[in-house]
């Protein structure tokens, strides 16, 4: 009799767990559906936040908290463009809390550390009070996922744009990371070069930095010329 009760209790617990996971992904899919609609973030933010909040309520999957952090981060960038510094920093606080919550559950998430890095980069803009702290989180992201092309392109771009603010160890990190043997170098270096060209009009400063490491330039310089 006792064994039967234990089995039934275990089955009930399993069913509850499965139901919670189902509801969590149901609201995540609702969030993704809302994001796919042609509406501005300002129009859809409240609904998006609500859907992710419901997803997190039913499931503690770190994917959900990461998405919430990304939502707050994207909204903070829009608030920054609108000149709403106080609102921006308030939502950056929320983004940081969400990313940290996800990292507690999944501490090797490179994208979670990257999100933290971007949040601290924007905090208190344009003073860059936490610029170095942001780079530390970004470096951690690449330490964990060194071959991730998306992270490499975006994080290396940030470091290179802030070159004059980097300490010697950070500059060594940039060169050593860029000199890795990449299976498809064009997928790393061409987007980086194009982004620099679009933002600054030319790649003169970028090439000047990269030429300082002859080994890198001899191997990959053709992608920047």
Q: Topology of this protein?
A:
Elements: H1 2-36, H2 41-58, H3 62-81, H4 85-105, H5 110-122, H6 131-144, H7 149-161, H8 168-178, H9 186-200, H10 204-210, H11 214-220
Largest sheet: none
Average pLDDT reading: 89
What proportion strand?
A: under 5%
Low-confidence segments: none
Fold and architecture overview:
With 225 residues, the protein is mainly alpha-helical. 77% of the residues lie in helices and 0% in strands. The protein has helices at 2-36, 41-58, 62-81, 85-105, 110-122, 131-144, 149-161, 168-178, 186-200, 204-210, 214-220. The model has no long low-confidence stretch (mean pLDDT 89).
Structure described in brief:
With 225 residues, the chain is an all-alpha fold. The chain is built from 11 helices and no strands.
Keyword list:
mainly alpha; 0% strand
